[in-house]
Records
---
Amino acid sequence: MGLEVDIRKKVKGFSLDISFKNQGLHLGIFGASGSGKSMTLKCIAGIIDPDEGRIVLNDKILFDSEKNINIKPQKRNIGYLFQNYALFPHLTVEDNITISLNGKKEDIRPKLEEMIKLFKLEGLERKYPKQLSGGQQQRVALARAIIKNPDILILDEPFSALDSHLKESLEVELFELLKTYNKEVVLVTHNREEVYKFCDYMIFIDEGKSIINENTKEIFNEPKYYKVSKLLGYHNISEIQYLTNNTIKATRWGISYKIDALLNNEFTFIALKDNLLALNNSSVSNGEIVVEVAVLDIIESINSFDLLVKNVSYMQGDSISLKVDKKTFEAINLKDNLFLHIDNEALVYLR
Amino acid sequence: MEISPILISLKTAIVATIFTFVFGVFAAKLVLDIKSERIKAVLDTVFTIPLVLPPTVIGFLLLLIFGVKRPIGRFLLEFMGVRIVFSWQATVIAAFVIAFPLMYRTAIGAFEQVDENLIMAARTLGMSEAKIFFKIILPLASPGILGGAILSFARALGEFGATAMIAGNIENKTRTLPLAIYSEVSAGNMKQATYYVVVVLAISFIVMLLMNYFARKQIVKDK
């Protein structure tokens, strides 16, 4: 069961090499812009043909270069929500939604009404796409994609065409709706919040290659790769150096510390989890790493203060950024010596 | 006042436009659907070449095809009893060949303008290629195609060289407006020629007005 992809394709100056098996219900395909996410989707939908490989959906072979199988996009029964929704501009909302159905108007009517109700499009049936807001267009496109009851629903950056203030409320709305829709969904995005909120399983694509696929929470907790951690929002990343068997130095910050277990020496970077960093005036350690720091910059944001600090014994190094909530910040005496406490759990090793 | 050239011209231009419209649109679709770039280029050249050839050359080539001593012309005459050369049908054929590239070119341009995402979306929705063509591509390309049809009509109406070669200049039969103007001027009947010129100007003016009207209508619909 589920979606299984193992494909390769070469186009001018870009090569795609994707391999994964969805082990969740909601799959996130995550990667930077231009990494090959959309192309992967188009291969799954059959709009683009891969050079070689295999695509299987729920035990149905959609593409297999060895067996010479390539099912037409029309026959794949995949619901596809395009990035800009791709509504037919010359057709009304109801014609857009029902265009894929063949049959008499009276037979189509109940299905249309069900969709109109589900997507709250009452009163918009006779409007043209250009007369709708971005959110309404999205709902029409979604209604059009699922009216034929597809085996899988693919959403290509569903929120990228919307204003940011609309985005958040629509996100909640759409995710709620899709959770009641008990089918496999693929969400493509470069927004980590979206993946985290919606997807239970995710793959990460970088420069056309799928480099990691695992449960979403696990990847966020342990991104394993430098590039992944960057896109997932880790700010503090440093190269590491093995001083002895059990001593490690984060070279950018000049921080050395002991480790209990031997580390796999494939790891060449360390990242810090922001929420497990603390700043105070106490040099006492309860097992965590404590470094005396100087504050370089303080930026007040809505709910917290964003601080940039540097190791006082390594001022030529890079700074570490952290967020301190406003209450905690008031308790800190900035004129006294300051100490950064790095919890052992905050350390994430990367390759 | 002889009005037969006006009637012949209108009849020729209308019939020729209907043919150019149907064949031009389908030729455009055919060429766009061909995957091989080489075959595409060859067909594109064949369909466009009447645009750059002098009409007399086209008339000459048509004579080579339809002349009664040529295989096709002979076949048509002997087995179907149809004589193309110097018949009214010849004016339609001449106008068709001359106007065809205009229709074909504008239709290709109009099809290429249709957002590819819409076609992909239609495919994922399970729509057949024929349904996609008639329900999505054709309506979206319709302003351009309509413009092409009007241009073809105007060109068919003004056709002179090829018509003279293959259809001749027979009064009440193949003498279209441009031929009538030429004949009247050569006979020194400037007054009669002026009358025809005014008619041509009037028709052209109305055609352009119509074209602008449709173009504007499309803009309003977009808003």
---
Amino acid sequence: MGACICKQKSGNRRLNITSTVPPSMENSFAEGRIRVPNSRESILILETLKQIRLLVDNEQEPPRSILMLHKIADKESGWLSVMMALISSVPADDPLGPAVISLLIDECALPTKATIEKLCNRLKLNRLIVNKDPDKHRNICIALGCLAEKMAGPNSIHLLNNHVLNYLIECLNINNYPSVILFALIALEKFAQTSENKANIIKYLESLSNGHGAPIEKLESFVNQNKYMERQVRFCANWSLDNLFPVENRPYSYEKVNTNGINVMLNANDVSEYLKISSDGLEARCDASSFESVRCTFNVNSGCWYYEVTVVTSGVMQIGWATKQSKFLNYEGYGIGDDEYSISYDGCRQLIWYRAVAENHLQPAWRPGDVLGLLLDVDNQRVVFSLNGVQLSPCKKLFSSATSGFFAAASFMSFQQCIFNFGSTPFKYPPPNCHFQNFNDFGVLSIDEKTILPRKIKLAMLKEVDIKEDSCTICFDRKADTILLPCRHTGFCSECGKKLSICPICRGDIEERELLHSPER
Amino acid sequence: MAGGLPRRIIKETQRLMAEPVPGIKAVPDEGNARYFHVIVEGPAESPFEGGTFKLELFLPEEYPMSAPKVRFMTKIYHPNIDKLGRICLDILKDKWSPALQIRTVLLSIQALLSAPNPDDPLENDVAEQWKVNEAQAIATAKQWTKMYATRG
């Protein structure tokens, strides 16, 4: 379950924030990570980071620290101090840090134009030296990206003034810290959701290229000692060039990728909206604030099957098995493991998820490079998870509701990424003493099915679709051939007619549905 | 979202592009055809006149069997819209019908700007003000429109 803290049920909740530190929190930062909190806001933010791991029930009240931060951010001066505290106090090594910045900004009251201006002034972006204090710059970039996303439209244009644009592009310098490069890239991507910004960014990038390759192109081959950090930078550079900032004469990734030997992929047609899938269909990443999910292209009904996932980031992902009935409720924060048709492993919070209920497991928290093994034994009704070859005891509960049609599937919180291996390359930790098969030996994909198009191209193709005028007004898939009785309203097909209990036009109860005879031609 | 984009959504998008609604702009996101960037002009003779209000509209997986999710992104002083931009409007909740469309929803929201309904409030403080001192409430709404919803 993704942390969803939008459950404020009434607008008149009153919080008392008279004391600076609630008594229960006084010792909460005794572990002393990186920075000593120096304000009420910082203390609350560190408390939120701790609490968010324990927030495993979406119906549960959000932690008090979050509610207090919201309350503080209701006033302009409070909003500014929450922003400044987020930037200075979220530690770089907390796997949930970036996601918490995104969650908090997303849920705070909307800032005014004047407030945004004040924030920019306080940050002094025009005078910052970007290659010092990488943690702070990383947080600034995350915060800018979240604000851009939250305020898409005129306010986002206002925020992306010359200083901010200059700053973000300077952050992309290949010699900079990879975490700063990564989040500057993501921030630019979020600014580009507003078309005027996008045009400005492209213009700026073009003015820089001078035949030496634009800054983002250089990042496509970015190499760094931190293998998994550089992988994220390359992934995002690749994505933004394919989807947002096209460069002349650069072929799209789907045109270059070699998918020979890959017979099972993540399904680009069976995915929630914001998940990014690589052109080889085996790597996925989420940079949205929602909880994004995907299933693979292949499913099984019997036998014993295994796949592996290499973790690129160490935050919240729920990786496991699901059937077609599992729902992807990205905005509500539900994904794989959050219904009775799926089960998942969460290596960040160290949980196994089933029916949106979490159970602790004893594996250590996962780290970039760790390999999650997922064994599904349909015949013996068991699922076995392993981390770097160390197996957990089998889980049986998935089979009480789901019996067939199992897909590999996963959900991602903000800024998470991992690589799937369905068997197209050798497994690192094949389960011992067990005869299993792999998806890739049995899957079949046509060339078209293997082609993962940039969404822009896909969308442009959709606009060309021709839809007949006599179609059902609800689905537009089938012919409108049904009359609802007694009201006699028409315009619906029999399939949609069956799903209705009251007439969509007059709201009258439906007693009968009759097929219309086709009109004579 | 199984099997790509439903034809119903494609059809509505095509129509919104071909025959836009006066005073309303709704453009699908380039990356996500279920997400629309919406601009609604404040209706004439309302306290929101002269303002342009940015909204987001999202079509959930069950659409059109369930209602679109709509939210104001621009701050607005209105008894039926809270500070997070959430809208209290019956057709977005229990009065939803699959015969309604994106365009009818946006027209209803525009109508809600013309006729605030403090008896069915979402933002209690604002509704209270609207009932106790309507002139003052309208003045505040005008002021907010100028502060938050005017370009430049």
